Amino acid sequence: MIRLANVAARAGAFALADVSFEVPAGGYGIVVGPAGAGKTTLLETIAGVVRATSGRIVLCGNDVTHAPPEARHIGMVYQHAFLFPHLTVRQNVDYGAASRDLADDMITRFGVDALAGRPVDSLSGGERQLVAIARALARRPRVLLLDEPFSALDPRTRNIVRRLVRTVYYEQRFTALQVTHDFGEAGLLGDVAIVLDRGHVVQTGDPEDVFRRPKSPYIADFLGAENVFAGSARPIRAEEPDWVEGDPDGFMEHAVAFTTGALTFYALGDVVPGPTHAVIRAEEVSLSAEPSHSSMQNQFRGRIIEIVPNGALSRVTIDVSGTPIVAAVTARSVRELRLVVGSDVVAGFKATAVHLC
Amino acid sequence: MPLAAERAPGMPASSAAARGAGAIVVALAASVFLLFIVAPVAGLVASGGWRGLAGLGADRELRASLVLTAFTATVATVLGVIGGTPVAYLLARRAFRGRALVAAIIDLPLVIPHPVAGIALLLVLGRATPFGAALYAAGLRVTGSITGIVCAMLFVSAPLYVSAAREAFARIDSRYESVARTLGDDAWRAFRRVTLPLAGRGLTAAAIVMWGRAISEFGAIVILTYNPKVASVLSYDRFTSTGLSGAVPAAAVLVLFALLPLVALRALRMDERQGR
User: Fold this and answer.
1) Which of A132, A178, A210, B54 fits as disulfide partner to A81, beta carbons 3.0 to 4.6 Å?
2) What pLDDT is recorded for position A244?
3) Which superfamily does CATH assign the domain made up of A2-73+141-217 to?
4) Which residues of A touch B (CB under 8 A)?
5) Cβ contacts (< 8 Å) between B181 and chain A: which residues?
6) Alpha carbons A192 and A288: distance in angstroms, whole number
7) B80 and B47 in a common domain
8) Total-model pTM
């Protein structure tokens, strides 16, 4: 378990202030934040190589705020590996290994057995990172701290190594905290997401929840939400909108109209009337040739102004009365709906897909 | 092959000529400067080097002074390494109040005239001072002894070691130590297993520079300990007692002696560049 309570620390130009969060025992925490947010400083403070100037750090039930790094039973992998250049690959993995057998196991698992006798300056960036991960795991840490550990790996190796780390994680059941720029990784790996900005925790929670319900437009933007709109919201329960007719789920109580430019969306939420932001994930926006008679409360006809293929999904931007709305649709949908730039299409999304923040 | 710089297409002729003239002036200035450095040393070695080396077998005093110089410089260097390494490490790694002042104080012996350094040492270690008297009472005589030579050498050359060692430590990313700490090492063990091996070449080079500076010291030594004579003092002594002809062989041998650390330093750096 990793628990931080009101931790402050400083390392050079980076400072942490009043940082509090908890990753449960055996949990996998993900730290995301822009460059300069203090993500590495946070890991170094937990590791004890940067001194916490206030607050408490508890690892696996022990208050380690003032304990030296070697007493914290941690493993740490830096983005740039920091393999000891005067030692071979084998000697690096052996350096702090809990046992020779575990070092052998990690060397084999991470596929670096063929490199064991080589000096580390002859390795590629990806190979170095594999050795660094093997070295940290060979220590059998209770807490593993990973600072963008997969960033030097090519996409294929990244997936393999991510799976390997996950396998060892399930076997050893350590608590992990990983810094990443890739929020997709948070969804894949994380139990807890911590969003850090300028040394402050700005949001924590279940990664899915943070992803779908960011606390601010800044977080939404950072987490890759394409549809973030500034506008104003007002409760409309008194108007008894027809889309909550019957109100079987008690939606009426929370019905909201959000206006941005010439558009008004329906949304659900408890809002104070006035300026706010609406966030809609591109994956929540569907496209059709004609308005559908489904439960889609928000449907707008617009003109396609851009189609950007991106792997299995394409990003389609529709201009609706001067407001661009981005939809993520499959390549198959693009073909079947004959979507081309300049053609008209209907963009729709549910009121529940609109997050107000 | 044209001797002057070729004119680039589009460059005016007057500009090319000005560049050529500038290059000649720079080359001349550099040649005169090099000649100024090389000529006295080469002249000294040429006129007395062979005589000095040939006479080493018979010149017992010169032989003894060279041995004394090497021995005292080595002792001073060992003491400098023992005392200076932690200081250099702290200056490179730790941010503390007054760090700039400490660094400036350590560098001070480099910029004060060396006889002045000798006088300063005399004021602390001389028999007439409380500290010097206490040392004398404890059986440690500083002035007029090998201890005095070592003290003078240490005082004037240790700053070179600390400065170079500090650079050697600063070049090593502190995160290597951080990783070693997370792998279970305490601070001393991480220093011994990671930092020291990584800084090894830099520290060795720093020690060689210190040793080289120590063997050439004269000003501070002559104030503290005229006898027994180190090589620099012997050269001076022979110059004042027998004139130039008597001083040249000893001086030339000292120059050749001083070449040793410089050769070692260059060999170390070539080795480093080749990644060995």
Assistant:
1) A132
2) 62
3) P-loop containing nucleotide triphosphate hydrolases (3.40.50.300)
4) 44, 47-49, 68-70, 72, 74-76, 78, 80, 82, 84-86, 95-96, 121, 135-136, 139, 145
5) 47-49, 68-70
6) 36
7) no
8) 0.78
